[in-house]
Amino acid sequence: MDGAARTSGLASIAHDLLLLQALGLRLVVVPGARPQIDAALEGAGIVSELHRGVRVTTAEAQQLVNQAVGQVRIELEAALSRGLPESPYQHQQVAVVSGNYVIAQPIGVRDGVDYQHSGELRRLEVEPLKQQLAMGAIVLLPSLGYSPSGEVFNLAAEDLAVAAAKALNADKLAWLAPSDEAAGPKALTPSSASQTDNQLLERLADAASVVSRVHCLDSNVDGALLKEFYTRDGVGVLITDGGYDNERPATVDDIGGILGLIEPLEQQGVLVPRSREQLELEIEQFQLLERDGLVVACAALFPLADSDAGELACLAVHPDYRQKQLAKVLLRRIEEAARQQGLSQLFVLTTHTAHWFKEQGFATAVVDALPVERQQLYNNQRNSQVLLKTLSH
Ligand SMILES: CC(C)(COP(=O)(O)OP(=O)(O)OC[C@H]1O[C@@H](n2cnc3c(N)ncnc32)[C@H](O)[C@@H]1OP(=O)(O)O)[C@@H](O)C(=O)NCCC(=O)NCCS
Fold this sequence. Notes:
The chain is an alpha/beta fold. 36% of the residues lie in helices and 24% in strands. The chain is built from 13 helices and 22 strands.
């Protein structure tokens, strides 16, 4: 978590961490301390030089860095010692441990600039750390590392979190950031994360090659961790390398690829048949995910005339790419597009897939709930189920 996240709501974040721990997650927490370090240096009248966005940490500054990082660690340990009052876990004391798990090396001299005590991860002592997790402890990794020669190095907390998540083969990495840094589209691939102007998302995306779900959350949202992990729509930015490398609106050049994906499903009666001509007219409504030029998933959004509702249609994932959350990524995209168009309801008509949609927050509706114009087009023979989701704004 960012050092600023700490100051805004440490007690609430500690509470959420303890709840996640009680729910069975094994937690490694990387508390950043940049604002605290900045304040300590400023207080001592030390101006630290930044080179390529990285602080040059002199020996004098390192003393203050150690103090600031130590203070952050102590405050977090204290907050985590409060437990979960008024819950079945209230008498359960969770062990919080930290230690010399992070082995660091100096960044060294780059472009003629000696970074001195600014370091980077050399390796993580994975086995002892995993033993602590297996015994039920929460492990804290403050943003300091030690060298085999006994020196202390100042590390960038977000880079340490990414490296630790990769080294531990973690299921999830969640980073709590200030609101402006946590802003972004709700779902991203690593390659699209690197195309945003957001450096933090780009750095976090580095973990997505190993960690299947990387989340960037606004620390000012109360309960952000719980809401992201345990609500369908989540509240943060999700970066996932779900087997695709590009997501974009479709163009006429994609018609062949989309037909290749949906025709077998049309033949099985799962999707309503669409001719090439119809697709040409509707192509701008389609979003797709592609891998090496192959369309691996598509979906379309049709705003319904004279209503605040839109229809999600033609959601399809290539059989080789199913069960990788791609449909959920596309659904998030479509919902985002619908919100941007001012829509507040999303309909879907389906014969085979009602359950999947219900798991994504849709509820059964009657045909009469459709806007009148769409009711007239309803195909009684298909007898599709109508499902409706109200979009949160
Ligand atoms: C439905 C579909 C889009 C899901 O794509 P996906 O990328 O595999 O979905 P996700 O990875 O996000 O979710 C997979 C989960 O949904 C479940 N699921 C898939 N199809 C389902 C269905 N018809 N009913 C209920 N659950 C279903 C899977 O079993 C899996 O469950 P798990 O997570 O417990 O293992 C895909 O199976 C598909 O293209 N189906 C044919 C087209 C279709 O039915 N489109 C909807 C009509 S508009």
